[in-house]
Task: structure prediction
Amino acid sequence: MLEKLGKKALIAPIGSGIVLCCILSLAIAPMLRAEPQNVPFAIVNLDKGAVTIAGNSNIGQTMADNLISGKSSLGEDSDDESESDNTLSNTVSCTQLSSEEELQEALANNEYYGGIVIPANFTSQQMSKAVGLSNAPELTVYLNKAKSPQMVSSMQTTLSTAMLKMGVAANIEVVNDADLGGGTMSETMSVQMLVMPLFMLTMIGSIITSLVFWRKDVTGLRRKNAWLAALVQLVFIVVLSAIMAGLALFIDTVAGGLSLPLDMIYPFLWFGCFCCMLCFVALCDACLPLGALVAVGTFALGMGTAMLAPEMLPSFWADWICPWAPQAHFGNGIRTIIYLGHMPGTNDLVPFLGFAVVGAIALIAAPLLSKRGEAGKKYTVANS
Result:
């Protein structure tokens, strides 16, 4: 093919470089622009307040109200309002809960990225601190690692700095933790290093499968019986997706030395890989350029969503890509298994089923399109 192009073939390396640059830009850009914003947090105010000359005062409730409304953390009338206060209220989006027990239950259900508990003596201790009679009051801050280890790492720094400048001490506790083994980067990179190889194997394997079974028809089945060829290809996808899931786990567990609950992670990866592979292979069968474009586009657009929470991504990725991107639901599902110890829920399984439905429709359409194409060729030959 390149020989037929002659000197025009010299454009191929440049064109390939431009295409690869575009793909990598879509994959890397959201990760480089990641910044926490409107992170769902819960806040519990246990402050009983205090009686002052001016009347009853409850600094804890004022703080809670202002964090919920997005104002400065210590209140509108605070003299020490600073940029860090506004940064904190812009970073978190707080919902007030009635008790610490309710907060713990919500964190166990993976509903929030964290929670802030204001103690019962917060107002009195704040007043004592103002006249030099006590140390800074201490808040308890819970951070939920099951939601996002990257968010925990980012919020620890943000909260510690903001609380320090507010004159409040923060006792930060991480909940839903797990020991993965490996090195210091294992927690932040484990999901990405599992999803990225899996999806690359899925994407490349899907395109090659379609080329071998359908386009080149190396088995000869498609020429004899297109429906049988589609069925055999479906069985092959089941087997190949199982192998791909195993290879991805090999990278993390054997090569990377991580300790993962394989009995739950492996079937989840197999299921997700099968659904995506069915979609990509069938679309390539029906229309190769379209199928390849969908596979590569899904890889490029969704890669940043595996590791990063939607609240850390630019709005385009958070609003339009995360809801359907397989990588985002692979990441959520893996974290659910590792940190919460149970299989993912319907929110992370249904998007995969959507890919499977598209794949099933395309797999049925491919033999019909193949027969129509062959009928068209016979008609052309007969009239030539």
The two ends are 27 Å apart (CA to CA). Strands lie at 39-45, 50-52, 55-57, 92-97, 114-118, 138-144, 169-175. DSSP finds 15 helices and seven strands in the chain.
